Automatic annotation (TrEMBL):
Gene3D superfamilies noted in UniProt: 3.40.47.10
Keyword Nucleus: no
Stretches assigned to the Thiolase C-terminal domain: 267-373
Keywords: Transferase
CDD domains with a match to the protein in the record: SCP-x_thiolase
Source organism, top-level taxon: Bacteria
Keyword Ion transport annotated: no
Organism field: Paralcaligenes ureilyticus
Pfam families referenced in this protein's UniProt entry, alphabetically: Thiolase_C_1 (PF22691)
Molecular function as annotated in GO: acetyl-CoA C-acyltransferase activity
Protein name per Swiss-Prot or TrEMBL: Acetyl-CoA acetyltransferase
InterPro entries associated with the record: Thiolase, Thiolase-like, Thiolase_C_2
TM stretches of this protein: none
């Protein structure tokens, strides 16, 4: 019999910060991560030396890792983790940092994610992203996420009856949310007709199905509840988290993710159900993954997400608030920071710092992560249930 999982009582997440995204940047990833650290120190009213734990996620930090970054930032943490898991990084950083604080290995952990975007950064990242993906597409002479997600999207449409109009509804709703979010790079409204008429990239993927690479950084702090109270920082409580890697390995092509393996234990650990969740921040590099997460996290049956999409608005002031800041599809994808985008937005929602994107009466939020696409599937999945301090 497995021992019962320990809860996260007394451990909280706080001080969500975003370094505003830009399309291209001449600065290094180190600069963006340093700006995020500086913003954390300023927001929390602490000294850099008070931070004794560090989690880092970045693609363009290479050849450095979190270790090299400590010298660049002039830090000497007693606990350190480098999390190269793309869109799952934010939740996994929260998990690791929370357990480190709980165990006494660190008092305050800074979780940082950021990337630069030079004119050629994205091509270089793709060329070194995954040996498995390189080998899989070599005979076809094509690679990159657009081809992989076209494969996954076409298969999902064939299996479920999802249409481009269904994917478009999510993209249009996210753009409506993004118009309220000051850091979103997409500043123009998007209609369903504009979505449908956009130029094809790799059928059935069209322009507005794709995230726009950019530069930026996001970050947050993890500490004990009494420390946050002493610093007078609003915070969110951690109800439950899960992560799973390379789930459903016998499936010939991804139709479900690791969330579905651990979902029941996830909600049981938090003592809540999907019906209790007031908003969902899902990793959204392409709309098909939004639908998989809605299903695999228990908001509808498997294969029923297209109908679920038809029944909800997904806007901050409507039914089933979803990616309330616009998600990557309308904010931009700042490399590994994309895995933190939903986390910092959830923390803002649960501490009444979301301003124009605030969901009224939001008490419980779910953040879902998905990362490291290997041709026919994403390898990393993770999720966290968070609650406002008085919930």
């Amino acid at each position: 019999m497995k021992p019962a999982r320990r809860g996260y009582e007394g451990i909280v997440a706080t001080a969500p910060v975003t370094i505003p995204y830009v399309r291209y940047s001449i600065y290094s990833a180190h600069w963006w991560l340093g700006k995020a650290l500086g913003a954390l120190v300023h927001k929390a009213g602490i000294a850099k030396t008070d931070i004794d734990g560090l989690c880092v996620s970045s693609f363009t930090l290479a050849p450095d890792t979190a270790v090299g970054l400590t010298q660049h930032l002039g830090m000497s943490p007693r606990w350190l983790d480098h999390i190269p898991m793309g869109g799952a990084s934010g939740v996994i950083a929260l998990r690791r940092a929370a357990r480190a604080v709980q165990a006494g290995d660190a008092d305050i952990v800074a979780c940082l994610a950021g990337d630069t975007n030079h004119v050629d950064s994205f091509r270089h990242t793709l060329s070194q992203f995954s040996r498995f993906a390189q080998d899989a597409v070599y005979p076809y002479g094509a690679g990159g996420p657009n081809a992989s997600f076209a494969l996954l999207t076409k298969n999902y449409m064939r299996q479920t009856g999802a249409t481009r109009e269904d994917f478009g509804k999510l993209c249009v709703a996210q753009r409506a949310n993004a118009l309220r979010f000051p850091h979103a790079l997409m500043k123009k409204p998007l209609s369903l007709q504009q979505y449908l008429d956009a130029r094809p990239i790799t059928e059935p993927i069209h322009l507005f199905d794709c995230v726009m690479p950019c530069a930026g950084a996001d970050a947050f702090l993890v500490m004990r509840e009494e420390k946050a109270q002493a610093l007078e920082l609003p915070y969110a409580r951690i109800l439950s988290t899960i992560e799973r890697h390379n789930a459903w390995i016998d499936d010939p092509m991804q139709m479900r993710g690791g969330w579905s393996v651990d979902r029941d234990a996830f909600y049981e650990h938090a003592q809540v159900s999907p019906a209790d969740v007031d908003f969902l921040q899902a990793y959204d590099d392409y709309p098909v993954i939004n639908m998989m997460q809605i299903e695999d996290l228990g908001f509808c049956e498997k294969g029923a997400a297209p109908q679920f999409v038809r029944e909800h608005t997904f806007t901050t002031d409507g039914s089933f608030p979803f990616n309330t800041n616009g998600g990557q599809l309308s904010v931009g994808q700042a490399g590994a920071a994309g895995g933190y985008l939903g986390m910092v937005e959830a923390l803002r929602q649960l501490t009444d710092q979301a301003d124009a994107t605030q969901v009224a009466h939001a008490r419980i939020g779910l953040v879902s992560g998905f990362g490291m696409i290997n041709y026919d599937r994403g390898i990393c999945t993770a999720a966290a249930l968070l609650a406002r301090s008085q919930a």
